[in-house]
Amino acid sequence: MKPGEFASSIRQWAQELGFCACGFAKAKSIDPAPYRDWVSRTAVNGLDYLARHMDLRCSPKKFFPGGKTVISLAMSYAPDPAQAPPAADWVALYARGRDYHKTLKQRAKKLCDRIGEQVFDFNPRVCVDTAPVAERYWAKASGVGWVGRNGLLIVPGRGSMVLLAEIVCNLTLPADAPLEGDDVGDCASCGRCVKACPTGALDREGDFQPARCLSYHTIENRGEIPPDIASAMTCQLYGCDLCQRVCPFNCDVPPGEAELRSDATMPTAEEVAEWTEADWDAFTCGKALRRAKLNQWTRNAKILLANREAKQ
Question: How many domains would you assign to the chain?
Fold first, then answer.
């Protein structure tokens, strides 16, 4: 089978496994300067891992010797519009279903199995979020999507409610071109996400400041949330979807993979404030929600309740 035909087969298999986009890029070294500069400017406690293994993050061949191609995959977790809207106290949509690390990794490994049935010496490395791989860079380079003003990857027809996985492998496949022109949405003239962010974590130039992001503070910040940030919390128990909720590219998109979505009732701030260790364990088991510990959940809930009381 010719490389182009084989690439088409891989795309088809990825779609059958629930991935909404699949692209290919040559596994080459990338300039670390822009990423290093951003990390140095935005360093915050809890995100120290972003600065680790910089050489591996910017060189797939160092990360995985023998790697020739990066296969980028995206899977949607967009809600089903037929379902009831989320409760007043929000739990980030991406974390409501089964832990996406496990879901995407298992699906990507199944894709590797399909490829391995055709290529006897196929040698892959599957990465989902935790490995030192510049996932948005590779998704953009492989034409899977573009990076929007909200700092998230936007997949045409699927929006930004997607999760990413990569397969670094020894196959030589034709590289896809990054999206450009009419294939890239016009974020510059919109700015809805910038206006919607209550803490100014996004700016008009498209720069993202983790230190002002409610998702960072409700999930990654293990200590006290600064007063000016805490005062902006209105419904964020775990994460914040405000910039995605207003994004026009997230309107009228198909529902995402069922395994990543959950119809389970989400807790209220009043309930979480009284959680025990057993309550936290039962609710977060098997979900990415376990990233935040019990004391963070109760901290967030108490901030929401205090803010509501102050407004009465």
Answer: 2
**Contact criterion met (CB below 8 Å) for 283 and 229:** no
Reported as a pLDDT band with limits 50, 70 and 90, residue 229 is very high
232-245 confidence digits (pLDDT tens)? 999 999 999 999 99
Among 134, 161, 183, give the residue marking a domain's end.
Answer: 183
Give the pLDDT of residue 45. Answer: 63
Q: Which residue in the list 37, 55, 129, 203 is annotated as catalytic? A: 129
The two structure tokens encoding residue 118: 């055709």
Q: Is 129 a catalytic residue?
A: yes
Kindly give the pairing relationship between strand 236-238 and strand 90-91.
Answer: parallel
pLDDT at 284: 95
Q: Pairing state of beta strands 162-169 and 90-91?
A: unpaired
Tell me: the pLDDT tens digits for 54-80? Answer: 677 767 777 888 899 999 999 999 998
DSSP states along 194-229: HHH-TT--B-TT--B-GGG-HHIIIII--SPPPHHH
| Cα-based angle 79, 102, 252 (whole degrees, multiple of 5) | 15
212 plus 267 within the same structural domain:
yes
The structure's pTM equals 0.92
Provide the domain limits for residue 14.
3-80+97-183
Closest CA to 130 of 156, 91, 99: 99
CATH number, position 113: 3.40.109
Which amino acid is residue 187, in one-letter code?
Answer: C
